Amino acid sequence: MIWRFLTVENIIALQAEQIDLYGGSHGLRDFGLLESAVSRAKNKVNYEPDATVPQVAASLSWGLVKNHAFIDGNKRIGLVSLIVFLGANGYRSVKSPMEESAMVLRAAASEITEDEWTAWVERSVAPLA
Asked: The domain containing residue 101 runs over which residues?
């Protein structure tokens, strides 16, 4: 498989777009935390060669939600990056925006573990038709 990874620049642009659309403060709080979150996807593939697209997408989005690299919109960028990464790699979400939002809120509040997040993502996607 040829992976299509999101870059730090992609994530910054997506986050700015979300802030423009839905409000909040622009800006990066910690570039290192952003790099760390974005690197999770490549690290997952490098260290777990059998990782699936949903597992890699879950790792990326978890890092973005939990690292709080941005001043505002960390949950939003976690969810948006999940959807964009899935789409770029041949998958789509089959869950409603309400359920997606509820799960991101649970992740951010540490009500679920990363393994539970990953399992939910795996159950929540389908290949693009």
From this structure: 8-127
Q: How confident is the model at residue 49 (pLDDT cuts 50, 70, 90)?
A: very high
CATH value at residue 74: 1.20.120.1870
Instruction: Measure the CA–CA gap between 128 and 25, rounded to whole angstroms.
Output: 34
- 16 token code pair: 């700015």
Under 8 Å between Cβ of 88 and 128: no
* Total-model pTM: 0.95
What is the C-alpha end-to-end distance of the chain, expressed in Å? 18
Q: How many domains does the chain have?
A: 1
- Residue reference for tokens 């570039």: 31
Q: Are 25 and 19 in contact (CB under 8 A)?
A: yes
Residue 101 domain-assigned (yes or no): yes
Q: Please, what is the angle between helix 8-22 and helix 31-47, to 10°?
A: 130
